[in-house]
């Protein structure tokens, strides 16, 4: 017999099952924009990765073209939406993540006077050193939670004001890449607390620009964007761009946060004591607290994520980029062989490194190939092998390089423990997580279980989850746990403890002693670079 009630119930259930909401996370990184479409279960339903160059025309420079980045964002959104072919109303919103510390000078018509000066640009090193030495930098750090380093817009502004005064005077606005993109799309200048926090000019205790930092930088509040929360929403996109992208201009966009804090959210490392260790091109160790915390020794940052969520940790310049250097400079023949055999060259190198015992038979590598941020915050830092003997081989050198990267992350963890306590668990992510050897090194050196979350593009997912929270699609950020699983758990191997416990203190003592000479060798290298440029 036909049962109308049962038919209606089944139909409604089918509609509920088939109905999907979608959210896009846009991750503006140092060398690419990743645009990721997530459904309401956290699964990736669309992906685009648009690359752009990093300009390093002279020593210490690291810049990007803001128009190239903007085009990459438009292309990414266009590609993902066209492939997804969503029904009207299914896309609930778009949320942003962006790399921290970028600076663009704009004229009165909001046209760029400079390229985007990135976190990797070290030309303000002289002024960062002066602030650290005269004690003023400590005062600023204690209010902003951002260590004094040439990465910050704060030190970049001081450098520009002193060394390019004409350019500095032309500027009407001082913004980062995310603020520039938002202005192009929506015609408003807004900056979220998380990105502002990373400028080094934002007071984390009164949630406003810091008067002392602004005075030292030589700028005023009315030259900066309006401050808003990371959950703030934008609507009314420029119709020309909306037409190109293929998006309803009324679609809500969420400001989002900076990439580091969102990476923690994206791997479900937001509960007290849950620590995220990331190694991509660079790396970081971060943990979330419910209020801002400052390190009396100035070794770690404190950045805003969302109400009652602050991310405390330390970034390192030298992660996977060091492994790339080892491959290209020390193992070029193996790289060619791997390409011919159609195998991953990094897999080949880790296989070579795995034949060497833990501790590399006493060979230590300081991985400071591009200066260093946490925990020493020294842009002049340089890399070195220590303990090299005739018995050491290239295999020892590759293992020592991998260990050196993890040693440095461990020193960040030591500093972090003094501020927020011992981690209760470690979530490890980034390109390195593909390597079983590197994952095991992390567990052995940290002497703690290491979990590898089952998540794709954690930073973009973090942006999407923050967007879902802003739009009321989820009730709490902790719901991210529904989207993130765990694939591997690595347990520390006690057989390695003796070697690593002996070598880590030597690594730390050496880095402190060498700091007295880093500036001398860095100055020599800059002088040599200048001579080469002049002769060409």
Describe what this molecule looks like in 3D.
The protein is an alpha+beta fold. The chain has 2 domains: 22-260, 2-Layer Sandwich (Nucleotidyltransferase, domain 5), CATH 3.30.420.40; 268-535, Nucleotidyltransferase, domain 5, CATH 3.30.420.40. The protein has 18 helices and 23 strands. It has a 7-stranded mixed sheet, sandwiched between helices. A 6-stranded mixed sheet has the order 3-2-1-5-14-13, with helices on both faces. Strands 4-7 form a two-stranded antiparallel ribbon. A hairpin with a 2-residue loop joins strand 17 (301-306) and strand 18 (309-316). The protein is globular. The protein starts with a helix and ends with a helix.
CATH topology of the largest domain: Nucleotidyltransferase, domain 5
CATH H level, superfamily name of the largest domain: ATPase, nucleotide binding domain
Helix content: 40-55%
Strand order of the main beta sheet, please?
17-18-16-15-21-22-23
- Give the N-terminus to C-terminus distance in angstroms: 91 Å
The top level CATH class name of the largest domain? Alpha Beta
Enumerate how many helices there are, as a single number.
Answer: 18
From the coordinates shown, what is the CATH architecture of the largest domain? 2-Layer Sandwich
Tally of individual domains: 2
Q: Major β-sheet, in short?
A: 7 strands, mixed
Q: What is the subunit organization of this protein?
A: single chain
Radius of gyration: 24 Å
Low-confidence stretches: 6-17
Give the class from helix and strand content and strand pairing: alpha+beta
Q: What's the count of strands?
A: 23
Outline: globular
